[in-house]
Amino acid sequence: MDEITLPKPDDWHLHLRDGAMLKGILPFSAKHFARAIIMPNLVPPVVTATDAQAYRDRIMAVLPQGLDFTPLMTLYLTEGTDPADVAAAHASGLVTAVKLYPAGATTNSHSGVRDLSKVMPVLEKMAEIGMPLCIHGEVTSSDVDIFDREAVFIETVLDPLRKRLPDLKITLEHVTTSDGVDYVSGADKNLAATITTHHLMINRNAILAGGIKPHYYCLPVAKRESHRLALRKAATSGDPRFFLGTDSAPHVDPLKECGCGCAGIFTAINTLSCLAHVFEEESALDKLAGFASVSGPAWYGLPVNTDTVTLRKRSSPVSWPAKIETGDGPVTVFDPMVPVHWEVA
Ligand SMILES: NC(=O)N[C@@H](CC(=O)O)C(=O)O
Ligand SMILES: [Zn+2]
Ligand SMILES: [Zn+2]
Questions:
Q1: HAMAP family annotated for this entry (predicted)?
Q2: Ligand 1-lining residues (CB < 6 angstroms)
Q3: Which domains are assigned to the chain?
Q4: Alpha carbon distance 16, 100 (integer Å)
Q5: By three-state DSSP, how is residue 187 classified?
Q6: Model's pTM, two decimal places?
């Protein structure tokens, strides 16, 4: 097969940032995706319905004419979040989900949750109204090895939370381990996971072997090869609980190429090409529509997009700019490290 047409994909985990960066990167997502779940980890974060409305307006204000793109807004859960504000934002259609960042787990997560018992009233309200909770699933304690933080989170935080609130609908974001895949596969209800493009393509060698490569550093950090293979199996299985969230997370190069580089990989430009490459390698191109276009809307209770996107396999590899320029500075584009022949037609 050298051509495949899909319902237009959606991105169920995306960082659009703000200001000049937002303006610089939005066109790349808006070209290939109809909708995206917009992460709220700005500085300051998107905490209230008022914040979400203002951020949504800023996104729409810089959306280039002719591109049809719907940002699905999220609220950043804090220990001061008001359950009534969350419920009203959901009822009005403004906000799709709430995002839980354990404080300190990732980029701009310092206002996140330290003590889960403090946000129980919000979570109870969400369970009652059927509003999904998106979770960055890593523990933060310094005595847990960074490669184990997802597995430990599942065991010590996620599983107890699901037992306490079985009606709460949870998206475990950017799952990176076989532990995560197994846990989601074994759940009876109300649990799904997003998988990023880069975690299907790279393992931790990309970051650490042959010199330290900050543009492959993200959180949760890429794990060993056996985990990547488990993610590939889940993504290409046709199980609707695993679907695409790119976690495209741009940072300007000076903030990545330094003594304490930021976590995040910018994949918005080449995600669809890379996914076609992965699914072809797994002899599963027939499962790509499910992963990128169908299972996400089903989970979030939205219709599948009626527009389509065609991917075409070329005889020569596709290339992308190594960097894009934004008003905030250059952003390095994800290099999949293998020749990719699929282009968006
Ligand atoms: N994934 C990342 O490495 N970084 C994200 C935050 C996140 O999704 O955890 C970012 O905002 O830069
Ligand atoms: Zn995250
Ligand atoms: Zn993210």
A1: PyrC_classII (MF_00219)
A2: 15, 41, 106-107, 136, 218-219, 247, 249, 263-264
A3: 3-344 (3.20.20.140)
A4: 18
A5: coil
A6: 0.98
